[in-house]
Design brief:
heterodimer, A: 309 residues, mainly alpha, 12 helices, flat, B: alpha/beta, 11 helices, 31% helix, 22% strand
């Protein structure tokens, strides 16, 4: 298991390096520069600033400098916010985003699993159809529509929860629910399919032939095996959540990273864009890393295969 | 001899979109203490459905037991609740399945899978159950059981997994062991080992075995009695000698003729012409008639009853009626019967295909 984990970790570092490189060169292809909108500056002044930030150096030199700084954890300084370090900006904004994302994925996974298991056990009954309709709705309706509906009915009409802003736990409930709808729907759909397949497999018949009760068969034999493929979709789901937060944060006026990211792109704030992209990527890779480890925990076959290869 | 299990006129149907598939249409047989009864027949003849029905493992719906009784220890299994069946499954009647590669849970250790059945049916502590699991693995010939119980199914070969499945089925000393094609998915050398193991264990533990197979070579090797099934019915039943040396039903002749043999290298292997009937609309009369070269007019109109050949031997064919013309089995079958007679007394693996 340790060897498997280490191997995954090395892959993770390599992936991160590739993403950093790609982001850097893509950024160089972006039209304009951070100074495009600064009409007050004379060409000479612009030259001085470009020189100061090393933007006049040949691209390979810039790339090497960038990597050097990156290894030391330095993401550079922002052009738009008076030379504040990008790291500081990210740290300042990450709290609300992370909390929302985390709450949404935990809540969504738990509800989705329950719904999916319920649907599989009540296969082809009214309960199953209800769960299926619910997940189709959840998948096809984007999170910002849920966000607006929640705001209107629960926030404005019923006045149960605050409509927007970020001043305590009750402010997180509606954005969390809006974000988790997609997670619930996806997980429920997958869980249902997987459970149905697992429940039809030979080893479930063996378990039943041993005299194990229906509940025992489901909890001891079926769920763990059904979880294996579900863990796979947790990775992409996390990405969905990240992009989902961009919009949902705007709607609920949450001071998160997403809002900042969008503004930086409009302003060509190279370092912030690169820093945030890299940060998102690192987060994603971390999620995939955790998913890989989870695989090993759930499925003994993977644990060993990883060690041998 | 003491009867352990009695199946009486069992009918099982599957309700599907197109209608009612009558998979089992009146099967009756007895199982005696300590014997091995083989149920043979080609795919779709209802042998697996029958065996699963004995343990009430068929999903309902779509399946349903239309009529008939399964008597075991004075109770009719078809009438028991799911809860009552759970007490019987794995404890008094247990089952071995065809494919050892898929019949073990891949995410559970072998030890836990064996202990599970012990903890369910016997009042054992976890420690006692573990010790018993080690004993069972030893019994089925797995080396280093102390180490092996901590391993997962993927760390075992196919033959070893089937041994584990057998250990699991034997855990609670069942009265009846149902083996549904237990060697079909294994290669021939492993097949022989598993069959030897099963015979050996039966001698030690004295349980009755219902052995489902389509391989007559295996039947000759393990069975005391044989029931031949066709289209959801038992068409001939008798001791293994009666079925091999004195078969009466044309379908049994066909099965015997289509067994590969070492002595007939150059001949083309016989196969029964045609296909089994569609059990969605079972034919009138004898279901085998359209494939039967000896079919008479009555075969298409009236189902033959079970004619008695001896106290232990019955066959459902009009050829046994006193007014029927005298028909000898085909030459190839007579040849086979002679060979079987010659090699009797040294029953072993030599019939295996």
């Amino acid at each position: 298991m340790a060897r498997y984990t280490l191997q995954r970790f090395i892959y993770m570092i390599i992936t991160l390096f590739i993403i950093a490189t790609a982001t850097f060169f893509l950024m160089k292809l972006l039209p304009g520069s951070p100074l495009t909108n600064q009409e007050k500056l004379t060409p000479e002044q612009k030259q001085i600033i470009l020189e100061k930030y090393g933007l006049n150096d040949p691209v390979p030199v810039q790339y090497v400098n960038y990597l050097k700084n990156l290894v030391q954890g330095d993401l550079g300084i922002s052009f738009q916010y008076d030379n504040r370090p990008v790291t500081e900006l990210i740290v300042e904004r990450i709290g609300p985003s992370a909390q929302l994302g985390f709450q949404a994925i935990v809540f969504g996974t738990i509800v989705g699993l329950l719904l999916g298991i319920f649907a599989a056990i009540r296969h082809n009954s009214a309960g199953d159809y209800f769960a299926t309709v619910l997940s189709v709705l959840g998948i096809s309706i984007p999170s910002f529509v849920f966000a607006a509906l929640l705001q209107y009915y629960i926030g404005v009409k019923l006045q149960w929860l605050p409509v927007a802003f970020w001043q305590g736990f009750e402010y997180t409930i509606m954005p969390t629910i809006a974000l988790s709808m997609g997670v619930i729907a996806n997980i429920a759909r997958f869980t249902r399919t997987e459970m149905l397949e697992v429940l039809n497999s030979d080893y479930i018949l063996t378990a039943r032939a041993k005299g194990i009760s229906q509940a025992g068969v489901i909890f001891k034999h079926a769920i763990r095996n059904a979880l294996i493929p579900i863990v796979t979709i947790l990775g992409p789901m996390a990405v969905n959540l990240m992009t989902g937060t961009l919009v949902v944060e705007q709607i609920f006026a949450v001071p998160g990273l997403g809002e900042q990211f969008v503004r930086s792109i409009n302003l060509n704030d190279y370092t912030v864009i690169m820093g945030t992209t890299l940060f998102y990527s690192a987060l994603l890779i971390l999620v995939i890393f955790i998913v890989d480890i989870l695989y090993g925990v759930i499925d003994p076959r993977i644990r060993l295969a990883g060690g041998k290869k | 001899m003491e009867k352990v299990l009695e199946v009486k006129d069992l009918h099982i149907s599957f309700d599907i979109h197109a209608g009612e598939v009558q998979a089992v249409r009146g099967v009756s047989f007895d199982l005696y203490k300590g014997e091995t009864l083989a149920i043979v027949g080609e795919s779709g003849c209802g042998k697996s459905v029958t065996s699963k029905a004995l343990m009430r493992l068929l999903p309902t719906p779509p399946s349903r037991i239309k009529q008939g009784e399964i008597l075991f220890e004075g109770k009719d299994l078809t009438k028991l609740s799911e809860k009552e069946m759970q007490e019987i499954r794995g404890a008094k009647i247990s089952m071995i399945f065809q494919d050892p590669m898929t019949s073990l849970n891949p995410t559970m250790t072998i030890g836990n899978q064996i202990m599970e059945v012990l903890l369910k049916h016997q009042k054992l502590s976890k420690n006692e159950a573990r010790n018993r699991a080690i004993e069972l693995l030893q019994l089925v010939g797995i080396k280093n059981p102390e180490l092996r119980i901590k391993q997962y199914p993927h760390q075992f070969s196919g033959g070893m997994r089937q041994r584990v499945v057998i250990a699991m089925a034997l855990a609670c000393n069942p009265k009846v062991l149902i083996a549904d094609e237990p060697t079909t998915a294994l290669d021939v050398t492993i097949q022989a080992q598993i069959l030897e193991l099963m015979k050996d264990i039966q001698k030690k533990m004295g349980m009755s075995i219902i052995f489902i197979t389509h391989d007559l070579g295996v039947v000759a090797n393990v069975a005391d009695r044989v029931a031949v099934m066709y289209a959801g019915k038992v068409v001939e039943i008798g001791t293994v000698d009666e079925i091999f040396y004195n078969p009466k039903h044309p379908y049994t002749w066909g099965l015997l003729a289509s067994m590969p043999s070492l002595d007939h290298k150059d001949e083309e292997l016989y196969s029964i012409p045609g296909t089994p009937p569609d059990l969605l609309n079972p034919p009138k009369g004898d279901a085998f008639a359209p494939r039967n070269p000896y079919a008479m007019k009555i075969d298409y109109e009236l189902e033959p009853p079970m004619f008695k050949v001896s106290d232990t031997h019955y066959a459902a064919t009009w050829l046994l009626h006193e007014n029927a013309p005298k028909v000898e089995p085909p030459k190839v079958v007579q040849e086979r019967m002679r060979q079987f007679a010659l090699s009797s007394g040294k029953k072993g693996g030599e019939f295996r295909g």
